[in-house]
User: Fold this.
Amino acid sequence: MDFLEPRYIPMNRRRRIYEGKAKILYEGPEPGTLIQHFKDDATAFNNKKHQIVDGKGVLNNRISEYVFMHLNAMGIPTHFIRRLNMREQLIREVEIVPLEIVVRNVAAGSLSQRLGIEEGTVLPRSIIEFYYKSDELGDPMVSEEHITAFGWATPQEIDDMMALAIRVNDFLSGLFLGVGIRLVDFKMECGRLWEGDMMRIVVADEISPDSCRLWDIASNEKLDKDRFRRDMGGLVEAYQEVARRLGILVDNEPPANGGPRLVQ
Assistant:
């Protein structure tokens, strides 16, 4: 199958498969593909807080593309094929496992609140947590016992997801450390990719400042969605700074028309 030159169908003529809080999935140009469209919606607390932030979708598309391209190049399996334009990616269709995998390197957010650990405390080792994907229930944290008892994933799939999470954490930690950013924690989703009768677990969804806690190493300035959650302001500027350090934004060039200007 040739994914290099897919026929492009205007967004308003495509069949919408699914719409989430930050992305829309459309039918792809070939069987087994989807088009992932990044919206400008910023949400927190399971959509109880919602705002449109101009340019956020463009930045998340490009940052996630950058990360997934590197993961693919390292042999870490993902759903990503290639970017189509400033807001859209061509991805492989997968069956999403109804779990969020959170990898924590530094205490922050709900971990600090649950366990009374001061935010910013470096953890003795990286900790992997699972959360059941349900906005209605507030994405509750679950154990491996819950996951297997309710059939959300098999023991082998849990092992595969944990192995992927460790590899992605190692890569992201080094990537961000190299540009002066500490990877505090991140959320990852996985999907089942079927190839004939064979199935494998792959990294899916997105990896961006929406799904990572990123702190400047020198100042501890937050460069992620906590700026929106905590009413700190400067969300797009923080995402632009992440993109600039990764070499995605044109350096020393102001954004055009109020929106982020990105390297093509």
Remarks:
- The chain has two domains: 11-93+239-258, 96-216.
- Residues 252-258 have pLDDT under 50 and may be disordered.
- The longest strand covers residues 181-195.
